[in-house]
Design a protein that fits this description.
- This protein is mainly alpha-helical.
- 68% of the residues lie in helices and 4% in strands.
- The chain is built from 34 helices and six strands.
Length: 657
């Protein structure tokens, strides 16, 4: 008799659930739409299939299902409310669902087991959010074990493994987290879920200092953004973290800038807030206090700040203020320390104490330096991640101090192997600024080069290595007497080499040619922009636009520099117009409008760009707004050239008619 009941249960499984269990979840909503009179159960399973990709639509279907009598749909409804951020409603629904779903698994009853497993998965998430980490792990381990025994639960294994990994990540157990994340990728995983899992695994690899694997996973996430575009701000943010850990400051700035822009567009104010704080940290490291202060101001004005937000803000204020007022910086760092201690955030405390050490080194208080570093080391002993490395990259005084210290257990805890002890700063780098200005920095300090055209000379040889002196002088000093120009060049070489030992213009006596020799990591803004432009990737192009801070060597007057300036601007406009066309055809009008306005800052009299501005404004805001844009553009051309271009005249006729 019991066997017969089980057979009936198996035969009566809902056909849409059957598709889900077969791994054909993408077909569920298609089949649902073909139903003439869908039932409450139909609503439930259709909503279930849309949870990850369309949570708002899923929520509406699940509310309808529950209203029509399918009480078990409360399980999915709880998940839908959680995904869209309504934790209060989610908790109410999961508490209600528990009363209807038994916790025991039953042989050969697929639908009942699926209900129980999904409910326990959702319950574990709520236990985790309420701080019951042990209870959450126990619930997940129970249902994880069940997925190996009951075939119908195999599709839930990915989500369960992912949640187990997230809990281990929060505890900074990155080896265990990476194991569960890899396990969650096994089998048939929806692209949107796969992107989220890969992003978390990249973070695990990054915090374990496996930067190559992290970069690979970040690249895989980028390829899947079309399935989960809302993940783009987080992706760019963590790419920025990866660059920052490696000491790649300009790349980090470009990634954080893009993360902040995308987050604000998506109204993801948390990500925008932290991206701005990280930009402040990067600019402080590169000794740009004014820019750092600007990012702090942006962060503080983005949203109303929680205790946690205030602690992070005070931390970065301390870092920025320390550049000029170390005593005042201590006030901000103490506030950050108190906040993180109250919130029980040890990883952040580690970073704050490293910054205390940096300030105490500025104030030459050796005893307090040691005390701060030993507190940081105690926290680092308990962690698998590279939190110390992330902050040490931007604290050269602390790195130099650690290198000089005698070997000890606490010193080793703060000196990751990827930071070479033979390099006192741990980040030997040269920054060559050529966009919107011209300067040369070595390990964060701008060199006083005396000879004004030294940066132009460096750039020429970077683009034209192994060049003879005659060719160089003809390119940069065509109107200057050769002997005088050669003296000017040799004086610049001597001053540059005397000022630093990392970058100089080297002479090959055998070939009689000159080239740039750089014994450090070189960050050259124009080269980074060009690299992004050549990638044929929309996100990389957006990074190029963010990194383009002005014309190439704006003060240079040589024909060579003018040609390079025009070539770079033309290349940006060319790739920009191709991107605009693609976005416009895909109806991505808001992105199109923002990009067109940005490109007009680079080439203010490009009629094609004005056409995109007017047409996208017409699509987004209507005819009246488009006419205003057309009149504004016409006025600009009349004032500059005395007439309206033919292309804008055509648009005028179209709009007026």
């Amino acid at each position: 008799m019991l066997k017969k009941v089980y057979l009936v249960a198996m035969e009566s499984i809902h056909p849409l659930l059957h598709l889900i269990l077969k791994g054909c979840g993408e077909q569920v909503f298609e089949n649902y739409q073909m139903l003439e009179t869908p039932t409450a159960d139909d609503d439930r399973w259709a909503g279930h299939s849309l949870l990850i990709t369309q949570p708002l639509k899923a929520k509406d279907l699940l509310v309808r299902s529950v209203t029509r009598g399918c009480i078990t749909a409360k399980i999915e409804l709880a998940a839908a409310y959680r995904i869209i951020g309504d934790w209060k409603r989610s908790f109410i629904e999961i508490e209600s669902a528990i009363d209807f779903v038994n916790s025991e698994f039953i042989e050969n009853h697929q639908e009942a087991n699926f209900n129980r497993a999904f409910m326990m998965h959702e319950l574990a998430i709520h236990q985790k959010m309420q701080g019951d980490e042990i209870g959450s792990l126990q619930t997940l381990e129970l249902v994880f074990a069940a997925t190996f025994h009951y075939r119908e639960l195999i599709l839930l294994r990915s989500g369960i493994c992912h949640l187990l990994a997230r809990i281990h990540m929060e505890s900074r157990h990155y080896n265990r987290a990476a194991y569960y994340l890899s396990a969650s990728l096994e089998g048939n995983v929806l692209p949107a879920r796969e992107a989220r899992i890969l992003l978390d695994r990249a973070r695990c690899y990054m915090f374990q200092s496996d930067f190559l694997k992290a970069a690979t996973d970040f690249m895989l996430v980028r390829e899947k953004l079309e399935f989960v575009p809302q993940l783009a701000p987080s992706l760019e943010y963590f790419v920025g973290v990866l660059h920052r850990i490696q000491g790649k400051w300009l790349e980090a700035v470009a990634a954080y800038t893009l993360a902040s822009q995308l987050a604000r567009q998506a109204e993801d104010l948390d990500t925008a807030f932290f991206a701005e704080l990280c930009l402040a940290a990067c600019q402080a490291t590169m000794l740009h206090p004014e820019q750092a202060q600007l990012h702090l101001a942006r962060a503080s004005g983005l949203k109303s700040l929680s205790e946690r937000d205030l602690a992070f803000l005070e931390w970065r204020r301390g870092q920025v203020v320390a550049l000029g007022q170390p005593e005042l910086a201590l006030v901000h760092l103490h506030r950050a320390k108190d906040g993180f201690r109250k919130l029980k955030m040890p990883r952040e405390l580690l970073g704050v104490f490293l910054h205390f050490a940096q300030v105490y080194l500025q104030l030459q208080n050796h005893d307090l330096v040691l005390a701060a570093l030993k507190v940081s080391a105690e926290i680092a002993f308990e962690s698998e991640d590279c939190a110390a490395q992330l902050e040490l990259r931007g604290l050269p005084l602390v790195q130099q101090f650690l290198v000089r210290e005698a070997p000890s257990a606490w010193r080793e805890a703060l000196m990751p192997t990827v930071l070479n002890p033979e390099e006192p700063t741990g980040m030997m780098q040269v920054e060559l600024k050529t966009l919107g200005g011209a300067y040369l920095k070595v390990n964060g300090e701008e060199l006083n080069l005396e000879v004004l055209r030294t940066v132009e000379m460096l750039v020429y040889f970077l683009k034209n290595p192994h060049t003879r002196l005659e060719k160089f002088l003809a390119a940069l000093f065509p109107d200057t007497e050769p002997r005088r120009a050669a003296n000017y060049f040799h004086k610049a070489r001597q001053i540059l080499k005397a000022a630093n030992s990392l970058i100089f213009i080297d002479f090959d006596a055998k070939k009689k040619t000159y080239s740039v020799q750089c014994n450090a990591t070189l960050f050259w803004d124009a080269a980074i922009v060009q690299q992004h432009l050549s990638s044929q990737d929309d996100n990389r192009f957006t990074s190029a636009i963010a990194a383009y801070t002005g014309e190439f060597l704006p003060a240079a007057t040589s024909e060579w520099a003018i040609q390079e300036r025009e070539n770079l601007a033309w290349n940006i406009i060319k790739v920009g117009l191709e991107t605009l066309q693609r976005w416009y055809e895909n109806d991505e009008h808001q992105k199109c409008l923002s990009l067109a306005h940005r490109l007009l800052e680079i080439e203010p009299f490009n009629t094609a760009l004005y056409e995109y501005v007017i047409n996208t404004t017409l699509s987004l805001e209507g005819e009246l707004a488009a006419k205003r844009e057309l009149l504004r553009a016409s006025k600009i051309f009349v004032e500059e050239f005395g007439e309206v271009p033919r292309e804008l005249g055509k648009l005028r006729s179209m709009l007026l008619n």
